[in-house]
Queue: 4 jobs
Job 1
Amino acid sequence: MPATVIIGAQWGDEGKGKVVDLLADRSDVVARFQGGNNAGHTIVTGEETFKLHLIPSGILYPGTTCVIGNGTVIDPGVLHDEIDGLEARGIDMSTLRISGNAHLIMPYHVRLDGASEMRLGRFSIGTTGRGIGPCYQDKAARKGIRAQDLFDEKILTKKIEIALEMKNVLLTEVYGVEPMDSQVVAEEVLTHAERLCPFITDTSLLINDALDARKSVLLEGAQGTLLDIDHGTYPFVTSSNPTAGAACTGLGLGPTRIERVLGVTKAYTTRVGEGPFPTEANDEAGKRMTERGNEFGTTTGRQRRCGWLDLVALRYAVRISGITELALTKLDVLSGFDTLSVCVAYRTREGEVLTELPANQTVYHGCTPVYDDVPGWSEEIVGVQDIEQLPRAARDYVSMITETTAVPVALVGTGQGRREVIDLA
Ligand code: GDP
Ligand code: IMO
Ligand code: MG
């Protein structure tokens, strides 16, 4: 059975966790392929709420193998705590597997992330401060520490020593912050080795074997398309590729293994951190979305910026990842608006109307949205499971998205809970 990729089609926090959890019920393997604990994926089972940062959103189903792939970056302390925290809540962690090739976020990456943001001042990216960027930098510079290094205390200590030689110059001379002691860092990292090492294995082999055995495999993205380091709103992006192509390199499987690409989008738009956001609504409408959608970050608790649905950006996400189906989340949040604005094009500073996302960053920064106003609905729709029970205007809103993107909407979210969803597949 071919694999299914699930990715965010906006700026993250689209509800990927909920959608992965829904599909994981019928899956044998769920694998994360990029990002780290900058992600926060919320699952509300009905009775309980789980906020996952590194562990795949399939973990709540006993027997589902959950893989943290080579393309991710792992903070060993955070993962250790997450494993213990879930286990304490009765979740079976024996099915977790970690790629030995995944890079480890070191304490100096976290310090460098903070120092760099501080130095950038008003030009800062608004990162989550979790050391994601500096860790991926070291990976590309071939100075990274990998999960497999946890098996060898001597090698790990030496690598940290070499890495810190340069980092300490950067920390003290460039950023004017405290240096770090390599021995102390190595000892701290090694306190997690005993807990994490039993999970480390060849996860590429595991996934390919599962696919050969016709098992059902879900590939879970973090962040979203517009945060992609190549295709997003650079430099206001994360340091990995949250788009579908990265599922192959981030897990060690070929593109021929993937058949379905499910893009998750909110019925409106949110963004955390800095950077362009053409449909941002700094008015009563945006405030209403923040309140009704409870738009506060899962990882940092920051208030998310809110705005109208951006169909130009959504069509772009479809193009970049070859999305074959959409999951439309949080439709329930839009109840009570007389009209809903949807962005159908951008107007540049020069007055040109664009129906595709501009390839030039400066142009994008100057774009304002061209809106169509469509009818809203007043009825609350929380928990609706049948499309026929949605008000006419809500159904038309869903159809409008399918027509504009030429991609079918397979799922519609009508609440936080697992069962608060309309299945159209
Ligand atoms: P992720 O990072 O893409 O997994 O998304 P987050 O978990 O960071 O943010 C999405 C939030 O919306 C979470 O609190 C979810 O519980 C919630 N959510 C997901 N789908 C729906 C939905 O259809 N309706 C409502 N009201 N909330 C939803
Ligand atoms: P999930 O998986 C929303 C944003 C940060 C910042 C930028 C770079 O929950 O959708 P980083 O720490 O990655 O270097 O920060 O990316 N960002 C996210 N925004 N959801 C996320 O993950 C995010 N992960 C990173 O706010 O703007
Ligand atoms: Mg999130």
Note: The two ends are 18 Å apart (CA to CA).
Job 2
Amino acid sequence: MARLGADSLVLVDPRTGATVGELVCTPAGEVAARVAACRAAATAWAARPLEDRIEVVRRLGAALSAKGAELVAVLGAEIGKPPGEAWTSEVVTLGELFDHWLAVIEDELEPTTLDLNPVNYPGKRVEVVPEPLGVIALIMPWNYPVHLPMRTIVPALLAGNGVVFKPSEHAARCGALLAEVFAAVLPADLVVTVQGGPAQGAALVDAGVDKVVFTGSVAGGRAVAARAAGHLIPCALELGSKDAALVLHDAKLPRAVEGVLWGAFHNAGQDCASVERALVDRKVYAPFLEALVARAKELRVGDDVGPLIDERALAKVHAQVQDAVARGARVLCGGEPTGNGYFYPATVVVDVPLDCALWREETFGPVLPVAAFDSEDEAVAMADDSPYGLCVSVWTRDVARGEALARRVRCGVSYVNNCCFSGPMGGASWGGRKQSGYGVTGSSWGLGGLVQPRTVVVDRFFGQKEVWWYPYTPALATMASGLVELARPGGARLSGLARVVGGLVGRWKTS
Ligand code: NAD
């Protein structure tokens, strides 16, 4: 983590709270020049053949994999990620991300040609060609500081864009390490890194970029979206959530317990897609809860559940728990900061009033409120009763029923018997509804947000004029109404044809 000074970041190890260094911020006044440099590099990059771009991005993937151990070490020192988790969630996932985009990009960027009726449109060819947007501003959070930026950078580069990347102030060392790899592999200034906090983020939005891709809090997203609107530039927002896990009466309980446990407590609960509410069928509520609490007590602070990012986050999480307890909730395990660094133990809470912050607001920490439901309709209604809508998971042996139920919840990602793991997959869409944001990362839908489609119309018909050009005579109207009649389902074909022919003859005579 870091404390943000006027023009530098004081780096702090969240595992101990000790200051470990300092990093100079990019002066906000220099951001526009960085964007201009990126634009020049992006213009040259877009002009290169796609095969060249693919080759360079392939080398970038290899260079990042080779840095795996170093990335894992920085992820530990900077945000306290346990090594096993850092490898699986941030490095292994990169391989899959690159593999996906390198395999599909040629097809994805293939122009589409319209199938035109040669009678209506003689000699014409219409193509829709995806072109790069230009310079993408990438404003990122700290909780997955490697795979989150890369899930946009990889398709953005392949599509021919440049990127100006602002890592979170809390993940500046990780950002600096990524910047080293970019500098070693990519053309100069194609991916530019801007270090700092909200001031640098705001300067970046103002600096003449073509799109903003923002991942972070609702408050940050709202501010960035308002700013982007001022420049009329598009914005994609991946924000927070309060995702529910629905445990049905026929769930395979040991798997549901382990899955919900991991969903709630991995990355110390600091995941936009964490399981933040467990809704359990009353028929299995008691055994589920007993097993969940037993397992949560076994999780080791530090090894299994890393620290929260800073003292403010720790205080906020604990305040939500205390507020719920003051209103009648019961803590079954955890519930108190450990006193070392910014650690908070895995915490399970029941009897939480449904209007408490702990039930309604995002809890960026390892705290899981659990409640019972009596019917599946009630479970869906409870899941949907949230200002957010990123993911849901349903746990059941009846996979078809689980899928139908998971697809009823108003959100962007539905899981059956699993949770939280598909965000880094290049081929899967990721994006939420309601206050979880708008815009998509991943899949063709995400790539669509990184290109500008250009329609190209080429006419090889060298007649003097088109039938719909001047002069506007009654014959034109007769012919056009005939065309509509011919195309209309159940239309009077003969009368339509007569009008088309009569109209064409009339047009021919006037010309
Ligand atoms: P944050 O909003 O505090 O910061 C995110 C980034 O935005 C940082 O780089 C920050 O410097 C910048 N920023 C903040 N305010 C800004 C402003 N007014 N103008 C310009 N830039 C600004 O979020 P955070 O604490 O770093 O991240 C945690 C949040 O991110 C959680 O809410 C989490 O759910 C969300 N998140 C969402 C996803 C997703 O895919 N939906 C993924 C990861 C994290």
Note: The CA atoms of residues 70 and 177 lie 9 Å apart.
Job 3
Amino acid sequence: MRKGSGGSVFRCTDCGAEQPKWGGRCDACGAWNTLAEEPLSRTVGRSDSKRTASLERPPVRLSELGAPGVERWPTGLRELDFVLGGGIVPGSVVLVGGEPGIGKSTLLLQCAAHLERAGVSTLYVSGEESPEQVRLRAERLAVDAGAVHVLGETRLEAITHHARVLGTRVVFVDSIQTTYTDDLEGAPGNVGQVRECTARLLRLAKEAGPAVLLVGHVTKGGGIAGPKTLEHIVDTVLYFEGEAGGTLDHRILRAVKNRFGSVDEIGVFEMTGTGLTAVADPAAAFLAGRTTGVSGSAVTALMEGTRPLLVEVQALAARSGYGTPQRVATGLDHRRLAVLLAVLERRGNLPFGERDVFVNVTGGVRLLEPSTDLAVVAALVSSVHDRPLPADAIFLGEVGLGGEIRPVTGLERRLSEAVRQGFRRAFLSTRSRVSLPGGGLEVVGMDGIGDLARRLAA
Ligand code: TYD
Ligand code: MG
């Protein structure tokens, strides 16, 4: 067993807890393989500044405090404003996480350009690219970013100095992983540095009043010193995701924490040659390019926050050559797929035991709600029989272990959106209460997946 010798400690990259010794498992949160070594912090001077800071702000009565900041700066990017809850709140700290190459720098530079045009001063700190590279990026954008102040700097003390001197109202730090403070010995990017730099930027925001937007990289595996450890420090956490280089080039911006707005709202962007643009009709964005008349494709409607989103589920069930059949799920939990396959096998008499099964949700969307079970099951059944499902049908239902099909919540919102997008048939649980004004939708009620299998085979 390794031991932190000569002034190093081990910190959990999930929960941030500090341990004196290395172990396979974090004692604090129970996560496995998350302890990373980092040098002991040199905390000289910090306690002093903390002491004076706390003396500067004596306690006040709640009644003496004004109403909390209702002021917001709209960013000029419709979908970003929607996810933030109306714009950037002064003095707030927002973390934008995402895999490298997904478009975080582009999003923030566009945001800075729009803010400048609206008269809100900005400072874009780039630790990953030189100011010249940032300028090259800016030249591609449809919006003029000429007024944005750019600073090529990774040292935190310099960043906060310039932000204070300029009196900037929104500071962008790209990225938190390249930023370091002189007060810690560890290399930029280690958990200690990342946490300390974030805490100090938070202090800058609360003391001097600028909003701070941080870029944080996450790797596919969650990554060392990933933004996960920062989520409880900052006010708002947004994740930028999507299929980089996919045919649609759509990006989803998702709020997972928001002290100034609701969570679970998503914004949908498209990466174009001139930067990110808000998708005109987010609900239908992921159906663009759908092929109809092919077996194994089913459409369902997710609720993303308050917005319905139509997505296509594709399944391919092919006879396996030899050995254990493969199960590959993209955008769907593989355990959920295993459950649905077992239910289909036992309750629907469909032979998946000898088939490879591939399920894919298009556009990089993830199916997290059980209400999408029926679409997965329908796509699988359609693939086994090699019979396309009706192109104008939408599938909404949860599938139970007994093979029963259960009603879903928010049905009206989902169906209204489907009708708006031209869908004319809805496969639902017979127990669903449908009260759609205007009609225009044929409801196909089903009790269990036996019903579904019979209907699709007929
Ligand atoms: P970037 O913002 O650098 O991603 P991140 O900061 O998350 O690493 O985006 C990188 C990709 O976006 C890159 O592949 C180029 C592409 N891109 C466009 O397609 N259009 C554009 O206008 C810009 C600026 C970038
Ligand atoms: Mg970047």
Note: The CA atoms of residues 350 and 452 lie 12 Å apart.
Job 4
Amino acid sequence: MKIEIPKDHPRAESLRLREKLIEGFEAGIVARAGLIAHGRGEAFDYLLGEKTTPCAKEAIKAAVATLLIAKRPVISVNGNTAALTANHIVALAEMTNAKIEVNLFYRTAEREEAIKKLLEKVGAKKVLGVRKDASACIPELGSERRRVNPQGILVADVVLVPLEDGDRTEALVKMGKKVIAIDLNPFSRTAQKATITIVDNVSRAMPLLVQVARELRNETPEKLQQVIQKFDNAQNLGESINLIKERLSQLAVKGRFLDLQKGETK
Ligand code: ATP
């Protein structure tokens, strides 16, 4: 059953995302556990103010520069990311010359195919990692996430991993790859282990990645290197954590809570 979300509902956008995930679940794209994982993300989004923060924007810029400079970039796609932002995955891949590869923790052939079909419907020309196509293995990894394409994630120098698990992020970094994560939880192992962590909702970060890629794609490699060198992931994560701390301090001041819910941040 599809519900009508009132436009003036204070949580309209959040409810809209939930509906997209439920639809994705019913279409066999999102795993059951994906719905729960989204809930963990929502909690952090609430704490961050449900807006892309200035430090997330910095991370997005560094991420785009890293993707544009990469020789073999790959965008790794799971069910939640596909359900929330399939068209932006395809746009970003085109803009940065990246391959698209399906990679699932709860892997079934049906779900792989459903995700591939959705990506193709919104314009993907080639989708790696489905069924026998994921014939290579990431060493040291026990989960189904270990299965990768030999011309995709296995040999990539940069992998964008929206909504990742910490184990695989760590394994990919150990293989010498640069890992760009999108994760609302700045405390997660993924966030802490990635080379660049975008602490933002994947549904907001992906369109911004596309927009920034459009702006930066004609820059020289030297300029892109400067953007990357200026970025410090540990410091950026610290800024996101401080932002949460400040918001919690504001929320703790008597009488401020309702104002903050209306979107007032100072
Ligand atoms: P880790 O293994 O990295 O410590 P985890 O066990 O919390 O992380 P999972 O349960 O596999 O990871 O995945 C959920 C993660 O994805 C959470 O960290 C959550 O904050 C994040 N997440 C969920 N939905 C979104 C979203 N829409 N945008 C960004 N991040 C999200």
Note: The domain at 54-239 is CATH 3.40.50.12640 (Rossmann fold).
